[in-house]
Design brief:
- This protein has 3 helices and 15 strands.
- Strands 1, 2, 3, 5, 8, 9, 11, 12, 14 and 15 form a 10-stranded antiparallel beta sheet that branches.
- The protein is of the alpha+beta class.
- The protein has 2 domains: 55 residues, Transcription Regulator spoIIAA (2-Layer Sandwich), CATH 3.30.750.130; 140 residues, Jelly Rolls (Sandwich).
- A hairpin with a 2-residue loop joins strand 11 and strand 12.
- GO terms for molecular function: extracellular matrix structural constituent.
- InterPro entries: Fib_collagen_C.
- Its main location: secreted.
- It holds the Pfam family COLFI.
- This is Collagen alpha-3(V) chain-like.
Length: 256
């Protein structure tokens, strides 16, 4: 008799507890709000934000990849047109190298050497947020454009363009994968990014270098640590001897 009483009491108590739990869950659901991509209510990634709000257009939003306090959220550009890519702008995005033509076997000239050792940084992106962005992404990519500018003191009779790449012509638009790479990129790991991660092309008087790396799988740990680009080195063969300045334009670091 006593045992059945306790069983009945336990069932009643369990039922009452379950009902209270259900009420709490309903209250939580009513008070829950989906991430809005604002500073106060950031999302984890642009891909996530696009799934929640499919009507959003490309633009700037706030992300908090480590899902902690929103005070360290990062302002990013969401490229929903590209499937929800999370893109962070480099600082600075454009840097110049005073070109001093040397022999072909001269060492690589690094942009950081002419800028007090400073390398590319990324707006509001710290080590922790970068690590979590990699974890939330399947791939990352970045585009670099190199442009050679000739000395303005050239002879007045020379009417050719002031921007010139070795062996290039104004109508040139071709892949240069069959020639030695004239650029060197140092990634976030502090090592040079291997050439098989890059795709190089010439467009007019510019050289474009596209870098794409993949995340880890069960069989491969991934190469996400290679990006972002931190420094750029140029070989003497990339531009003609009359060039006095090289401009490197670094595109945003994008995760998808």
């Amino acid at each position: 008799m006593l045992l059945s009483y306790w069983k009945r009491t336990f069932r009643i108590g369990s039922r009452r507890w379950s009902e209270e739990e259900e009420e709490e869950e309903e209250e939580e659901e009513d008070s829950f709000s989906w991430p809005q991509g604002t500073k106060e209510d950031p999302a984890t990634s642009c891909y996530e934000l696009g799934l929640i709000h499919p009507h959003l257009s490309d633009g700037f939003f706030y992300m908090d990849p480590n899902q902690g306090c929103p005070h360290d959220s990062v302002r990013v550009f969401c490229n929903f047109t590209a499937g929800g890519a999370t893109c962070i702008e480099p600082l600075p995005s454009q840097i110049k190298l005073s070109w001093k033509p040397k022999k072909k076997n001269a060492p690589v000239q690094w942009f950081s050497q002419q800028h007090a050792g400073n390398k590319f940084e990324y707006s509001g992106l710290d080590v922790v947020q970068l690590r979590f962005l990699r974890l939330h992404s399947l791939s990352s990519s970045q585009l670099l454009t190199l442009r050679c500018s000739e000395n303005s003191s050239r002879s007045a009779g020379d009417t050719s363009s002031a921007d010139h790449l070795v062996g290039d012509t104004p109508s040139a638009d071709h892949l240069v994968g069959d020639t030695p790479s004239a650029d060197h990129l140092v990634g976030d790991s502090g090592t040079e990014i291997p050439s098989h991660f890059t795709s190089v092309s010439r467009r007019g008087y510019e050289v474009e270098v596209s870098v794409t790396v993949r995340g880890g799988t069960e069989l491969h740990r991934g190469d996400m640590q290679l990006l972002p680009v931190r420094d750029v080195g140029v070989e003497p063969t990339v531009c003609s001897p009359t060039v006095s300045e090289i401009t490197a334009v670094l595109g945003p670091l994008c995760f998808l």
